Structure formats: C-alpha cells, structure tokens
Amino acid sequence: MTESVDALVVGAGPTGLACGIELQSRGVRTVLVEKGCVVNSIYHYPTNMTFFTTPELLEIGNLPMTSLNDKPNRMEALKYYRRVADHYRLDVRQYEKVDRIEGEDNAFEVFTTDKLDCKHVYRARKVVLATGYYDVPNMLGVPGEDLPKVLHYYKEPHPYYNHDVAVVGAKNSAAIAALELLWHGARVTLIHRGGEISNSVKYWIKPNIENRIKAGEIRAYFHSNVTEIRADSIRLATPEGEIEFKNDFVFALIGYRPDLEFLNATGITLDPATRRPRTNPDTLESERRGIYLAGVIVAGMHTNEIFIENGRFHGQAIARSIAGHLKT
C-alpha cells in the first residue's frame, strides 16, 4: 500500500503529538507512525508512577490537563494524551514500525511494517523523527541476559511476591522498583557499580531506600557488577570477590538511550563525543535536508537535557519551517 502525505512524523509520544498538532494547524497533511501505542514511553512507566512536575508543564495543543493532585500520575497522563489525539483528530498509525527511509527532500519514501506484518510505503515531502529514547534499554552485556526472567522495564510489584529479585541500578527507576518490590513481599537485592544511591534520585525516595538498606531489609552490593545470569541464580563480581546467590527475576534498570542505529541508518550525522545529532538550532532540520528531529533525540546521549516539558515546544519551530518550505 502506498500513500502520499506532506509530512510524516515517526513517533507518537508527547513530542510527536505536539508536532502533529502544529503541522496540522498549518494545513500540512500529516501522518504519525508509532511502533507501539500512543505515548508508548509513558505506557511503559511503572503503573503507579507520579510525575515530578505539574500538569500545565505536560500540556500540548493548548488543551488543559487536570489532575486530582498537585502532580499527575501515569494513568492521568495516558488519559490526557488520548484526549489530545482525539480532539485534534490526529492520524496516528499505531503498532507500525518504520523500517527505513529513502529518497530526498520533497520526495522521501518511508517503508513500514504494521502489526499484521503488512508492508506500507509513504511518500512524504518532509519527515520528522520524534522517536524518544525509552524504547531502547541499555544492556548489561553478560551471559544469560536473554533469559525470560530478565526485564528492562518495571511495571508493578505483585507478580514478584515471595521471590528473590535482583534490581540492577541505583537511579530513580531502580530505587522505586526496589522499594515497591520490598513492600509487596519480594526479597530484594540491589546491585550497583557505583558506591552509593545516585544523588539524582528524588529527594523523598533516596533516604527511604538508604534506610531500607541500612536496616538490612534490602541487600545491597555496591562497586559490584553482574557477570552472569543463570536460570535460578545470579553471579556478581564484588570487592570481596566473585559470589553467586539464588535469583528468580532480574530488573536491569540501568537506563535507556535514543535509537542511534536508526538515526545512523537514516543518514543523520552524530557528534562523535556527545552523539548529539547536528541540527539547525532555529528549525531543528538535520543535515539531511527535509528530515527534522524533535524531542529527546536532539540531545544525543545527554537525555537529561530534554523532557516533555521543553521537548513539546519543538513542534512549533519544526512546523513553521515545514509549512514555509511547502508554500514555496
């Protein structure tokens, strides 16, 4: 199936939706292609997660976001972004993966595969990449990491009741997972290559997990690395030497990264040191003319520089540029 559009947005997270709204408001025929569900990254957040920001900083398209509390939770955010997509009648193709992008400015061909394994080709004059970073987890790179018991996303604690669970990492996601697992009856071991819980952990979480470790409720191995994961155990290299202990599940929560391989394959040039794509700071157009970047991927490996709160404004600059080019 072949279809022609003015612009194709890859990714339907908050930034991708914001780009779609801005393009559509300027009369640009736009399709959004998303390999998962709408705001797939937020869907993957822990079930009971609360945002560390206020509702108005998550708003897009001038639609107000409401919350029962000062800070919205995951379910409220999912409901809000569904409402945004409905309100603006955005054409979002969910569960459709972009395989490759060929062609040139004003004559791109975007090849995709949908959930039924059907192939599609979109002819697009402009392309916007708003692919985020949460879908590509960092890997441990050890034997056994491909076992079904190894997870890179934490959703909720109930399935791990009365099991031996290892949490690898010491930032927010790891700290929250370790605490929730403990509170719901799991026997938790925290493993971190550094010497302490990260200072970036939220101020109400950090002392809590440190106290649980101090009390012996959570077993912790610092300055330690996983060397092998087995069906019923896990091996670590610790300052005291190699150890092995019983293990049922492993949460490898050591961060996520942009899909740099996809960017490279698309012809996006990256700075060797920062992995930051080279873009026009005013329009966010990449060095491959006609392809724009939006959201966290603009920051390369410095993913802490761009969040929903500021990435949502990228759509305005991109839409102005695209609409201006299409009129000429």
CATH topology of the largest domain: FAD/NAD(P)-binding domain
Strand proportion: 25-35%
Under the CATH scheme, the architecture of the largest domain is: 3-Layer(bba) Sandwich
- Total helical segments: 8
Shape: elongated
Per-chain topology:
Layout: E1 2-10, H1 14-25, E2 30-33, H2 40-43, H3 74-87, E3 92-93, E4 96-104, E5 107-114, E6 119-129, E7 150-151, E8 164-168, H4 172-183, E9 187-191, H5 206-214, E10 219-221, E11 225-229, E12 233-238, E13 241-246, E14 249-252, H6 260-265, E15 291-293, H7 308-311, H8 314-327
Parallel strand pairs: 1-2, 1-6, 2-3, 6-15, 7-14, 8-9, 8-14, 9-10
Antiparallel strand pairs: 4-5, 5-6, 11-12, 12-13
Helix pairs in contact: 1-8, 4-5
What does it look like?
The strands form three sheets. Strands 1, 2, 3, 4, 5, 6 and 15 form a seven-stranded mixed β-sheet that branches. A five-stranded parallel β-sheet has the order 7-14-8-9-10, covered by helices on one side. The protein is built from eight helices and 15 strands. Strand 12 and strand 13 form a beta hairpin. It has 328 residues and is of the alpha/beta class.
In short:
It is built from 8 helices and 15 strands.
Keywords:
328 residues; FAD/NAD(P)-binding domain; 23% helix; alpha/beta; seven-stranded mixed sheet; five-stranded parallel sheet; 8 helices
